[in-house]
Amino acid sequence: MTSTNPSQAPYKQLRRPVSDRMIAGVASGLGRYFALDPTLVRVVFATATVLTGGLAALAYPIMWFLMPEEPAGAPAWPHPPGTAPGWTPVPPAGPGPQAGPPPAA
Predict the structure, then answer these.
(1) What is the per-residue burial (b if ≥16 Cβ within 10 Å, else e) of 1-21?
(2) CB–CB of 84/76 below 8 Å?
(3) Torsions phi, psi of 58, nearest 5?
(4) CB of 31 within 8 A of CB of 41?
(5) 3 state SS of 16
(6) What predicted TM-score, i.e. pTM, was given to this entire model?
(7) What does the mean pLDDT of the chain come to?
């Protein structure tokens, strides 16, 4: 029997997103999974391709084939804090005490 625990965060899934993709979404999916900017993943991938003499370029079609495409209605990962499915919403922080000189007496 399986039970869902609402206080437990949903697990991360390595998927190719439908939006935010340049070719197949591999770099964007890796960026979402590891909480990195997809542009940084693309730069690292291009650098690795140059440094390995093109060997790293073989990884892209392999990952394209192995990584499933995320469903069209799936929310983007990582979720902003407190907005993941099953989490209670976090109220926005209101204005705190104003910094500045103390009031004149």
Answers:
(1) eeeeeeeeeeeeebbbbeeee
(2) no
(3) -70, -25
(4) yes
(5) strand
(6) 0.59
(7) 74
